[in-house]
Amino acid sequence: MSLMITDECINCDVCEPECPNDAISQGEEIYQIDPEKCTECVGHYDEPQCQQVCPVDCIPHDPSKQESQEELHAKYVRMHGSK
């Protein structure tokens, strides 16, 4: 699954620089995650880094963007080449 940022976001700016895929950007009111770029850090880290640093725990899985680990890894390979 891709991740999403809920409206509980406090715009603290800590998640954006942690994303190795540049999937997080400032939206109109809160940060947002581009589901086409989010691999939940598969290929980079064992756990999503944005979730690890978020002080308000507002980055859950997006139930409308369900992806398997294999699909997330395939997305990583498309963006960064094989590893």
TrEMBL record:
Keywords: 4Fe-4S, Iron, Iron-sulfur, Metal-binding. Residues 1-29, 31-64 form the 4Fe-4S ferredoxin-type domain. NCBIfam families: di_4Fe-4S_YfhL. This is YfhL family 4Fe-4S dicluster ferredoxin. PANTHER family: PHOTOSYSTEM I IRON-SULFUR CENTER, PHOTOSYSTEM I IRON-SULFUR CENTER-RELATED. PROSITE patterns: 4FE4S_FER_1, 4FE4S_FER_2.
